Every structure is written in structure tokens, then in C-alpha cells.
Amino acid sequence: MFSSNLQVMLLAGTDTSSITLEWAMSNLLNHPEILKKAKNELDTHIRQNCLVDEPDLSKLSYLQSIVYETLRLHPAAPMLAPHLSSEYCTIGEYNVPQNTIFLVNAWAIHRDPKLWSDPTHFKPERFEKESEASKLLSFGLGRRACPGANLAQRTVSLTLALLIQCFEWKRTSKEEIDMTEGKGVTMPKKFPLEAMCQVCQSPTINGIF
């Protein structure tokens, strides 16, 4: 039982994190001005000759906004895990009978124009308002929310920060990255990301590679 639970946690954490990183990099490559702004933030807040580390994440508000916006537009689990009502209850205007299977379409909610301005566009700046992040459903809400939410956000944020700090990124052509969504329980890209990168020319990075 323990090994099966561990396997579920490992698979759920690695697949969703890698998918989120792929969506984040795809969006950044399609919006080089946002990528440049994220890199400038890293250069400003990370000491020279140092790689970004987990304690630095609290200083990188724009990077965190990029992660939030990626989770909004491309939730790794667009249909949250199903829930079952243990007893009769009322949710908003709906009366829910006992033993009803309840599905939440996070993808649709995250693109609802009643909740978000310009909902289909990648705009990390929207999360400069602290209240905006509380509207995200990527990890669920309440007692049944994903227990690995904090770990996932920090892991994705740190990995993305290192990719931006250590490498210069470009698209393989002048055409924008295709953002068509694939099929699955998680939401992969239909066409895997292909990009060009080279090691940044800085004393910190050159000393590592």
C-alpha cells in the first residue's frame, strides 16, 4: 500500500511539473519581452557569481507571476480530480444530492471573461494584484486540495529560474511556438516544444559549465 501511494505521488508530481515547465517556456519564447523582463529580475536580485536558489524565490515576484499565469492558462490537470458528495449539500445555486460525482473544469474557469480580463492572453502582470492568485484552481481548494501544491510551485519556479538564468533561449524559426493542446488526463502540448539554447556568457555560468 505504501509503495503504491508513493508511486502515485511520484508520477503525479513529475508529469504535471514537467508539463507546466514546457508550457511556461513555450509562452516565454512566444513573448520574448516577458522573458527579458524575467531575466532582468534575476540579474537584479541574485548576487553576482551565484546561482538562484530556493530562498531567493521570495524576491522574484515577476517569475512567480509567470508561473501563476502558466497555471491559469494551462492547468496540468484541466479537469480536477473527481469528488463525491458524502451527504446532501448546496453549492452556490445548486442542490447536490448525496453520492453525486462532482467534476470541476479548471481550464474553463481560468478562461472565464467574468473572472479574468483578456482571459486568453498570456499576461503575468495580472498577478501583481495579490488577490488574483487566490482565484486559481490548479491544485484544487479546501481540505481536498493537492497536498503537494507548495512543493510543486517551488520546484517549478526554481527550475524555471535556473533555465532563464543559465541559458539564452530562442525559437527554432521566426514562427511562434504552436500552443495547441494535446489529449490526456494531464494537458500536454500537442506538439512537443523544440527550442534553441546556449549557455549564458557570464562568469557565474561559465564557471559551472
Automatic annotation (TrEMBL):
Alphabetically list the UniProt keywords.
Answer: Heme, Iron, Metal-binding, Monooxygenase, Oxidoreductase
InterPro entries linked: Cyt_P450 (IPR001128), Cyt_P450_CS (IPR017972), Cyt_P450_E_grp-I (IPR002401), Cyt_P450_sf (IPR036396), Plant_Cytochrome_P450_Monoox (IPR050651)
Does the keyword field hold Cell inner membrane?
no
Q: Which SUPFAM superfamilies match?
A: Cytochrome P450 (SSF48264)
Q: Which GO terms describe its molecular function?
A: heme binding; iron ion binding; monooxygenase activity; oxidoreductase activity, acting on paired donors, with incorporation or reduction of molecular oxygen
Residues annotated to bind heme: 146
One Pfam family name from the record?
Answer: p450
Metal-binding as UniProt keyword:
yes
| Superkingdom | Eukaryota
Q: Which cofactor does it need?
A: heme
Instruction: Output the Gene3D superfamilies linked to this UniProt entry.
Output: Cytochrome P450
Q: Name the PANTHER family on file.
A: CYTOCHROME P450 82C3-RELATED, ISOFLAVONE 2'-HYDROXYLASE-LIKE
Q: Which family does it belong to?
A: Belongs to the cytochrome P450 family.
Full protein name: Isoflavone 2'-hydroxylase
Name the species this protein comes from.
Cajanus cajan (Pigeon pea)
